[in-house]
């Protein structure tokens, strides 16, 4: 795996103006997307996944959005500083997005073939006929059959799964360098979800695209991601390789997400769920916003937010439990089981 960065988000801070106080939606978020990799961003609803990625394509509502700090570096330029015109060239052509509900991105009164073709005409300057041929090729690539007929149909004539395939065809037609998929499979049933994820994985490799995959469902992450970033209350609270986050998680919030995942091997384990609900981002209390829900919280959690502690060169977690002065605690059974898997995985690697 190459580890050359294609996108670097550094110390991003975003607030929204409201009729009351501002909502501090993104509170100092940094992450890197490397060329060719898939980065999954996970977290509960409202944690800031969509806002931080919409900032990349500058799709946040201008009137109410205040970007109060940070930079978004793509190929050496700060996307927060370039002109609207330059951004229009990058959006769609170099950085494309797929959303949970394709109907919000597809034009309901234009045939799907025409929509894909139009994007190729605008971004790649293809002539109409050539663009339509390429559009049909893309539709076939994403597994749509009878493309001569289907390319003449409108979005409402497609099922949910097929519509998502159309969105993928539209997003990848211009061969973007980065694809941001925001909950692309959430509205689909489990079998179709698996098919769409497999499709995105194979096309991403074929097109040499780097992928940011946003989801609240850790279950789908294992099948797509190289690295995982876990968000809570507008911050990344843990990030690492998929094995590190799945089998050696350090943050009690990640423990909660993992332990509440349905699993076949959990019959005897004590179920650990995250009590309470996410904080009000308008009025955050002093200390770690996760503290009131954290059964492993220390006194300091109610006073000061933890920094990201380094676990390995590739793994970081923002929990005071990693401070050398913290008491040693016993993680929940399910997490201990994962630690054992992690240690046996590592032993296998060492013995190779
Ligand atoms: N236009 C807006 N005005 C005010 N607050 C906003 C606006 N857009 C987003 N927010 C707030 O920003 C925070 C982060 O929202 P975001 O949509 O990024 O969360 P998310 O993790 O993607 O959740 P979901 O999975 O529900 O989409 C939330 O508290 C949300 O209410």
Automatic annotation (TrEMBL):
<dbReference type="InterPro" id="IPR017871">
    <property type="entry name" value="ABC_transporter-like_CS"/>
</dbReference>
<dbReference type="Pfam" id="PF00005">
    <property type="entry name" value="ABC_tran"/>
</dbReference>
<comment type="similarity">
    <text>Belongs to the ABC transporter superfamily.</text>
</comment>
<dbReference type="InterPro" id="IPR003593">
    <property type="entry name" value="AAA+_ATPase"/>
</dbReference>
<keyword id="KW-0067">ATP-binding</keyword>
<dbReference type="InterPro" id="IPR027417">
    <property type="entry name" value="P-loop_NTPase"/>
</dbReference>
<keyword id="KW-1003">Cell membrane</keyword>
<dbReference type="InterPro" id="IPR013563">
    <property type="entry name" value="Oligopep_ABC_C"/>
</dbReference>
<keyword id="KW-0813">Transport</keyword>
<keyword id="KW-0547">Nucleotide-binding</keyword>
<protein>
    <submittedName>
        <fullName>ABC transporter ATP-binding protein</fullName>
    </submittedName>
</protein>
<dbReference type="InterPro" id="IPR050388">
    <property type="entry name" value="ABC_Ni/Peptide_Import"/>
</dbReference>
<dbReference type="Pfam" id="PF08352">
    <property type="entry name" value="oligo_HPY"/>
</dbReference>
<dbReference type="GO" id="GO:0005524">
    <property type="term" value="F:ATP binding"/>
</dbReference>
<keyword id="KW-0472">Membrane</keyword>
<dbReference type="InterPro" id="IPR003439">
    <property type="entry name" value="ABC_transporter-like_ATP-bd"/>
</dbReference>
<feature type="domain" description="ABC transporter">
    <location>
        <begin position="7"/>
        <end position="258"/>
    </location>
</feature>
């Amino acid at each position: 795996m190459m580890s050359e960065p294609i996108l670097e988000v550094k110390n991003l801070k975003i607030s929204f103006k409201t009729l009351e106080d501002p909502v501090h939606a993104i509170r100092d978020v940094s992450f890197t997307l490397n060329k060719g990799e898939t980065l999954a961003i996970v977290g509960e609803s409202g944690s800031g996944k969509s806002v931080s990625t919409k900032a990349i394509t500058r799709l946040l509502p201008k009137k109410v959005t205040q970007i109060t700090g940070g930079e978004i570096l793509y190929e050496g330029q700060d996307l927060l500083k370039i002109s609207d015109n330059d951004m229009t060239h990058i959006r769609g052509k170099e950085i494309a997005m797929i959303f949970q509900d394709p109907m919000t991105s597809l034009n309901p009164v234009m045939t799907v073939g025409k929509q894909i073709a139009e994007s190729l005409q605008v971004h790649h300057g293809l002539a109409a006929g050539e663009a339509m041929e390429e559009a049909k090729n893309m539709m076939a690539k994403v597994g749509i059959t009878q493309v001569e007929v289907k390319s003449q149909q409108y979005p409402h004539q497609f099922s949910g799964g097929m519509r998502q395939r159309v969105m993928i065809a539209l997003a990848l037609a211009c061969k973007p360098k980065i694809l941001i998929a925001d909950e692309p499979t959430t509205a689909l049933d489990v079998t179709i979800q698996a098919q769409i994820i497999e499709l995105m994985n194979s096309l991403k490799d074929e097109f040499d695209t780097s992928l940011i995959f946003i989801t609240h469902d850790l279950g789908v992450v294992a099948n797509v991601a190289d690295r995982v970033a876990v968000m809570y209350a507008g911050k990344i609270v843990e990030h690492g390789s998929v094995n590190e986050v799945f089998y050696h998680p350090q943050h009690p919030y990640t423990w909660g997400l993992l332990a509440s995942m349905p699993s076949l091997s959990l019959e005897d384990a004590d179920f650990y769920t995250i009590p309470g609900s996410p904080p009000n981002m308008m009025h955050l209390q002093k200390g770690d916003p996760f503290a009131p829900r954290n059964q492993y919280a220390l006194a300091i959690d109610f006073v000061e937010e933890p920094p990201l502690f380094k676990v390995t060169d590739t793994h970081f977690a923002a929990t005071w439990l990693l401070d050398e002065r913290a008491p040693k605690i016993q993680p929940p059974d399910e997490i201990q089981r994962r630690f054992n898997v992690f240690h046996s995985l590592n032993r296998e690697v060492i013995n190779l």
